[in-house]
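Minutes, structural biology subgroup

Action item carried over from last meeting: produce the structure token record for Membrane palmitoylated protein 4 (Chrysolophus pictus). EB confirmed the sequence was re-checked against the source entry. Recorded below for completeness.
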Amino acid sequence: ELSLLCKRDVNGVGVLYDLLRSHWLQALLKVVELLHEAPPSGEIKELRRLLRAPHLRALLSAHDTVAQKDFEPTLPPLPDNIPENEEAMRIVCLVKNNQPLGATIKRHEITGDITVARVIHGGLADRSGLLYAGDKLVEVNGVSVDGLEPEQVINILALSQGTIMFKLIPVSDRPVSNQTTLYVRAMADYWPLQDPAIPCADAGLPFKKGEILQIVDQNDALWWQARKLSDLSACAGLIPSNHLLKRKQREFWWSQPFQPHLCLKSSILPMPLSLTAGFRRSMRLCRRKSRANQQSCYARCPSSCCSTFAAPYEEVVRYQRHPGDRNRLIVLVGPAGVGVNELRRRLIASNPREFQSAVPHTTRVQKSYEMNGREYHYVSKETFENMVYSHRMLEYGEYKGYMYGTSIDAVRTVLDEGKICVIDLEPHGIQIARTHELKPYIIFIKPSSISCMRQTRKNARIITDYYVNMKFKEEDLQEMEDSAKKMEAQFGQFFDQVIVNDNLQEASAQLLSAVHHAQDEPQWVPAVWICSDTQT
Ligand SMILES: Nc1ncnc2c1ncn2[C@@H]1O[C@H](COP(=O)(O)OP(=O)(O)OP(=O)(O)O)[C@@H](O)[C@H]1O
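Output recorded by EB:
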């Protein structure tokens, strides 16, 4: 009947005809039918009750009301005086909400034209798809920009409410974006509001060292656009390019009063490792002595040691260890006395079949109760020095005339057994351990506040230059806090995880979970660890 009426083109019948034939209505009718026919089981009753519930009806009604509304902005009519050469001119109307426009402008050095310098990814202008870098502005809200300074144009934009109308001459060859998104770890802090060189401080993206940034635009040699991994839905911001940030770092570096270079402070710190208390004790004294004396390097500075300044961003990729792969090396870092050794000891004791430390090398004489390869690998001075010069030591140093060190081979031995190797390093050693082969996961053990430590460390014992089992003094706690701050400031970008060692049980549990997390969960690691098979 309907189809006959439809052919006669009776008003509205066509719509009704389509409606009744639509799949979704058929499906809905089928549901209703089934609901009626189905035996009244508990679930059906529940569904009927839900469908009749006032809140569900209200929700559907709200949905319909919203869906019917027209939320498109009302744009003003086009101006009458559109020039003859219509092709060359474009009128762009943008409705400004509380967000910034998401574009920067500049004055062309030679022609004096005001052009769009860049369009910020994800910003209002970018989402409109109507403004492009290189577009020449002719008018803004009916005001000619001819002869105006960029700041004056910005002022007009800042003062305008609601709709902004641009009259512009589109850029002739629009840049084709064929960029791939890049992820980097920031190796420096950046505060755009304190950077007089940034083209638009409001468009800058502040970041802290260690943060992962998604770089979405590298068209400009000086200013890239990036988002923070922690907030990918936000619109991008300006960050200095690799080249520019390097230059800034150098300028900052030279403007500072003389400080010994990182590499001078690094390297030859005495730092053997062991499970035995005696060894640990000598090591601590070594480290303290070397800090007090401000020892400089006498060995070749590892090339990576100076790279903090060379690479303000480190390209990273997501890495998921395959179950068959070797475990990642776990490196604990922290100020003296914070509990690195205690936590490591507890972790290994919790499951010695899973966790193990690396056996250090020494040039000292083997004692009667010791076994070669258990407490230490006992080697001659020449062998030890050869290992140092062939870069086979992660850390090494001298104590009471003997050399101590942890070799890469010793770590490798543990990893080859399928175990998780847990070592502690002075932060200067992190750079040397960061290799494609070891893929270290760095955990920073941080002291809690001094007031908390006063409570928790009441019965703890510290080892000093003169006493072995001495109670923590106020200055020890202060030194720990100061040292932790310095470590975070200088090496924080390398820390994959930070554990505050307040309550020992809780910190131990956090360490265990962090170690498993490192092995089983995907992580951001330097791209060279994954992309280059030759990298070591
Ligand atoms: N959370 C904690 N609560 C109470 N005591 C703690 C805690 N963590 C560590 N300790 C105690 O503090 C003392 C120092 O710890 P530990 O020897 O592990 O320090 P460390 O970081 O290895 O220092 P160093 O590298 O100088 O040897 C030990 O007596 C340890 O048991």
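Discussion: The radius of gyration is 33 Å.
Next step: EB to file the record with the rest of the batch.
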